[in-house]
Amino acid sequence: MSLAKRIEKALIDAARILPEPIHKRIEWARGEEERLDGKSAGSKASIAVLDAIVENLRVSGNEWIPMCQDTGMFDVFVDVGRSCPLSHAEIEEAILKGCEEGAKNGYFRPSVVEEPLFGRKNTKTNMPPIIWWNLVEGRNVEISILLKGFGSENTSATRMMNPTATEEQIVAAVAEVVTIAGGKPCPPIFLGIGLGGTMERAAYLSKRALLREVGVPHGEERYAKLEEKILAGVQATGVGSGGLGGRITALNVAIEHEPTHIAGLPMGVSINCWADRIAHILWEG
Amino acid sequence: MRTLHLPIGEEDLRSLRAFDTVSFSGTLYVGRDQVHQRLVRLLEEGKPLPVELAGQAIYYMGPSPPLPGMVMGSCGPTTSARMDPFTPQLLGKGLKVLIGKGPRSQAVQDALKKEKAVYVQAFGGCGALYAKTIVSVETVAFEDLGPEALLRLEVRDFPAIVAIDSHGGSVF
Hints:
The structure holds two protein chains of two kinds. Chain A is an alpha/beta fold. Chain A has helices spanning 3-14, 20-36, 41-63, 88-105, 150-153, 167-181, 199-211, 221-235, and strands at residues 73-81, 130-136, 141-148, 157-161, 189-197, 250-260, 265-272, 278-283. Chain A folds into two domains: 3-10 and 67-148, Dihydrodipicolinate Reductase, domain 2 (2-Layer Sandwich); 29-62 and 151-275, no CATH class. By secondary structure, chain B is α/β, with parallel strands linked by helices. Chain B has a single domain (2-164), classed as fumarase (Alpha-Beta Barrel). In chain B, strand 3 (57-59), helix 3 and strand 4 form a beta-alpha-beta unit. The interface between A and B is large, with 44 and 39 residues.
């Protein structure tokens, strides 16, 4: 199968089926909601939301309907091996073709406009995708495509923290973003946090953090612990599933970090809805 | 779970309370960002609206294309807050049921109470589930908006939760 065809197929599947670790996390959220409360009006409403999500996933998988009408904007992350035999131009061509065919044959909603302010004319093809290139060791190409819904994207944020910020201040700043978001991003949410770099690099890192497999903690213990602290801080907001009040607001937190300037601590907070749809394609060179 | 007919009757509407789970059957309109902006622009220019809003329900939604053999594709709610700047004016024209997801502005909350209308939250992201509730669909106006056009739907067993009732009660 050509790379373009593999991308197309992965996108069509991603709009309809979530990976097993996410199903497990949704089940976990329902159990926790019952265990920690389950009686208040907000908690009961949260459980109703989680039950609707499970039923929705059953319908989308069985009847091949996209799980959400917002099939998102294609946010493409490409890791190209330095010794990869494919040229960037060949990879780009495959991505463009795969995205266009995936949107068409997957019955995706045309959700992209060609210009943001004047007229907002729909491109009708979901093109163009956003493509981020990254060089890595080896011969392979690894492509991850977020089907990025904008209910959640609109609530994502960057914060330029002080270089002296404490862990507690980081947790509080993320909890504030989640509280402002409330029910808008379709909680329970997935959180990607980018720390370091510059303003736009932190935002980019926060998206890359979303790409990590759900349930796999950060490789460094201190960051893995911070992920847990942020998750606890976000659950304490009481936003709940559907924003209706409840004990579980987030399903997962992942952090990526990079070097930064002595005067700053840029932070990106990317919020993704429970429908955490990512197409992964590994091309082996 | 309460089963209700749309357009909603006065008595049913007044009996709804925040956190009630409901199931709608009947007729509702679909409109989101651009439809709201256009309707309010028409009102401001003193021009007639393409639909009579009095007593009706509106659903904030933009569907994905239908698969072969289906009347509608995935069709869950979009974020209501983006409609907030336009909503009080539409409530003023007699709109009675708003369906979307997420919190509303204070101005919308006040207008809901004043106009005795309700805001109902559909299950966010559950577009496949809602596709199964659509009996028929008809484009009513603004066809040029594509997936954002003003539609009229017939629905059966459309599930939702009352978020803000007509007495000022709220889940938020």
